[in-house]
Design a protein that fits this description.
Largest sheet: 7 strands, parallel
Number of domains: 3
Oligomer: single chain
Strand content: 15-25%
Strand order of the largest sheet: 1-7-6-5-4-2-3
Number of helices: 15
Bound molecules: 5'-deoxyadenosine, iron/sulfur cluster
CATH class of the largest domain: Alpha Beta
Shape: globular
Number of strands: 20
CATH architecture of the largest domain: Alpha-Beta Horseshoe
C-alpha cells in the first residue's frame, strides 16, 4: 500500500464566516456528495482517550461523520470507519492505545473496506507517529489534532485511492472550529472551548507540542454558543482550555476570562464551570466574578504539581509555593464554600525526600477537596526528558501512596461535612455502581448517589445527604 502525505494548504480560511456556517466548511469538502453516497447506511466507531479537549474533538468528529450520513456503533465488526482518538500526556495513556490498536487491526483483514484511523495527541509527535507507522501497517489513516476539519476528504481518499494517508500538516495558528458541526455527547451538560493550545511550556508537559500555541476563540462566537446552549435547555456548561486564564491575550478584543465568565453568568445558564486554570495568571478579577455569581460554581481545579520551590522552578511553573498559597487564601476568603482540586506529580527528576515532604505539607495546608495524582513520566521532546529520570520506581511508588493517603484524609473529612446538609444536585443518570440508584454532582462537584425516578435525569434537585464515603455521598431526594 502506498503512503500519501497530504497537505491542503488553503482548503479553508479560518474565521472566514462570509459564506455561512457549517455548510461553508462541509461544502468546501471536495468529495461531499460522493461521501454522502458512500456513507449511506454505514456506521462508525470512535474511542477517545485523555482530557476534555479530546472529548470535545470527538464531538466534532461525530458531527462531521453524521453530517454525511454515518451512524455510530460500538461494535467494530460492523463499521466502515473506526477512529482511535489518542492521548500522549503520560506513558500509560499511550500503552492503552497501543493495546487497542493491536486488538482492532485484525478487522482490516476481515473487512477490506475498513478505514482504521488514529488521531489525537500521539500522532502529533514525530517519534511516536513513526513507532505507530512501523508497528501497525494495518492503520490506513493518521490525522492530527488540527486536521479534523478535513476528515471527510481524508476518508474519501483512503477509500477511493487505496492509499494510506498521514495528514499532520498543521494549522496550529488558527481557529477553525466555528464552521464545524458537532454532536454533543450529553443533552444537558456541554463543553465549550474558549482557547486552544498552551504557551506555558512546563518542562514535563507534551501538550504545547501536540496542541500548539494559544489561540482564543472570538468572544462573540463563544457567547453565541452559550446563548444557543441556554436556548436548548442546557443546565451546565464547562469552559475548556489548557489554560482558560490566558483567554483573550492573543486577541485584541479587550476581553479576558473574567469577562467570559461574567457574560455567560448573566445569560442565566444554571451552572458554569471551567477547566483548567494555571495558578500563575489567575487574576483577582476572576476570583471576584466567581464570588459574585451564584451560577458560577464554587469549584476550582488549580494544579499545583509540587509544594517545593526548587521543583516548581525546574518544572517551569512560574510561581512559588507562597504565591500559590496566597492565591488559595484569597480564593477561600472571597468565595464561600469553595472546593479546590489539584494535580500533583511525584518523582520529578532529582526530587529529594525533603522536597517531597514540602508537597505533603502543602497538601495538609490547602486541604484539597479533590485531587489527581501522577507519577512522573518522561515525555520525549520535553525539556525534562533530557534530565535523568533518577527517582527509583519504588521511591516514586511509595511517595505516590503517601501523597494519596494525605489527600484522602482531607477529602474524607470534607465529604463528612456534607452529612445532614441539603445539596443541589444535577442528576446525571443511573448510578454506575448501583442500578437502583441515580447519581449526580453537587455544585462543588461531589458525586452523590440517591434513589429516584429516571425522569429526574437532567434536572437540578435538592438532595439531603445522609452519609459519606471518601469519593461520594449518599442522600435522599427532598420532595418539592
Ligand atoms: N508525567 C506525569 N504527569 C504529567 N502530567 C502532565 N505531564 C506529565 C508527565 N510528563 C499531569 C500534570 C497535569 C495533568 C493533566 O497531567 O499533573 O496537570
Ligand atoms: Fe492528553 Fe494533553 Fe492531548 Fe488532552 S491535550 S489528550 S491530556 S495529551
Amino acid at each position: 500500500m502506498k503512503t500519501k502525505i497530504v497537505n491542503y494548504p488553503d482548503m479553508i480560511k479560518a474565521r472566514d464566516r462570509s459564506k455561512g456556517s457549517t455548510n461553508f466548511i462541509m461544502g468546501k469538502s471536495e468529495h461531499l456528495e460522493e461521501m454522502k453516497a458512500l456513507a449511506k447506511g454505514k456506521k462508525y466507531y470512535i474511542h477517545t482517550y485523555g482530557c476534555q479537549a479530546n472529548v470535545r474533538d470527538e464531538e466534532t468528529m461525530r458531527g462531521i461523520l453524521e453530517y454525511v450520513g454515518y451512524t455510530r456503533s460500538d461494535d467494530i465488526s460492523e463499521v466502515d470507519v473506526a477512529i482511535i482518538n489518542t492521548c500522549a500526556v503520560r506513558e500509560n495513556a499511550e500503552d492503552k492505545v497501543y493495546g487497542e490498536i493491536g486488538n482492532l487491526k485484525k478487522y482490516r483483514k476481515i473487512n477490506k473496506e475498513l478505514v482504521l484511523a488514529v488521531c489525537g495527541c500521539m500522532v502529533e509527535q514525530p517519534e511516536i507517529l513513526q513507532v505507530l507507522l512501523d508497528k501497525f501497517p494495518e492503520v490506513n489513516l493518521y490525522f492530527g489534532t488540527h486536521e479534523i476539519y478535513k476528515l471527510i476528504d481524508l476518508i474519501y481518499e483512503v477509500k477511493k485511492q487505496g492509499t494510506k494517508i498521514v495528514s499532520i500538516e498543521s494549522k496550529k495558528g488558527e481557529v477553525i472550529e466555528e464552521e464545524l458541526p458537532a454532536i454533543r455527547n450529553n443533552k444537558f451538560k456541554a463543553y465549550v472551548n474558549i482557547i486552544y493550545g498552551c504557551d506555558k511550556f512546563c518542562t514535563y508537559c507534551i501538550v504545547p507540542y501536540t496542541r500548539g500555541k494559544e489561540r482564543s476563540r472570538h468572544f462573540i462566537d463563544i457567547m453565541n454558543e452559550v446563548r444557543d446552549l441556554k436556548r436548548l435547555g442546557y443546565k451546565e456548561i464547562t469552559f475548556l482550555g489548557q489554560n482558560v486564564n490566558a483567554y483573550g491575550k492573543d486577541l485584541e478584543e479587550g476581553y479576558d476570562f473574567a469577562d467570559v465568565l461574567e457574560e455567560a453568568a448573566k445569560m442565566g445558564i444554571p451552572r458554569i464551570r471551567f477547566t483548567t486554570s494555571h495558578p500563575w495568571d489567575f487574576s483577582s478579577k476572576m476570583i471576584d466574578v466567581i464570588a459574585k455569581y451564584d451560577n458560577i460554581m464554587n469549584f476550582i481545579h488549580l494544579p499545583v504539581q509540587s509544594g517545593n520551590d526548587e521543583v516548581l522552578r525546574k518544572m517551569g511553573r512560574r510561581y512559588s509555593r507562597s504565591d500559590y498559597l496566597n492565591l488559595v487564601k484569597e480564593m477561600r476568603k472571597k468565595i464561600p464554600n469553595l472546593s479546590l482540586s489539584t494535580d500533583i506529580i511525584v518523582g520529578f527528576p532529582n526530587e529529594s525526600e525533603e522536597e517531597f515532604q514540602d508537597t505533603l505539607s502543602l497538601v495538609d495546608e490547602v486541604k484539597y477537596e479533590a485531587a489527581f495524582t501522577f507519577i512522573y513520566s518522561p515525555r520525549k521532546g520535553t525539556p525534562a526528558a533530557k534530565l535523568e529520570d533518577n527517582v527509583p520506581y519504588e521511591t516514586k511508588s511509595r511517595r505516590f501512596k503517601e501523597l494519596v493517603s494525605h489527600l484522602e484524609r482531607h477529602i474524607e473529612e470534607d465529604a463528612n461535612k456534607y452529612v445532614g446538609t441539603i445539596q443541589k444536585v444535577l442528576v446525571d443518570g443511573v448510578s454506575k455502581t448501583d442500578a437502583n440508584m441515580l447519581s449526580g454532582y453537587t455544585e462543588t462537584n461531589k458525586l452523590v448517589h440517591f434513589q429516584g425516578d429516571e425522569s429526574l435525569v437532567g434536572e437540578i434537585i435538592d438532595v439531603k445527604i445522609t452519609s459519606s464515603h471518601t469519593y461520594s455521598l449518599i442522600g435522599e431526594r427532598v420532595d418539592g
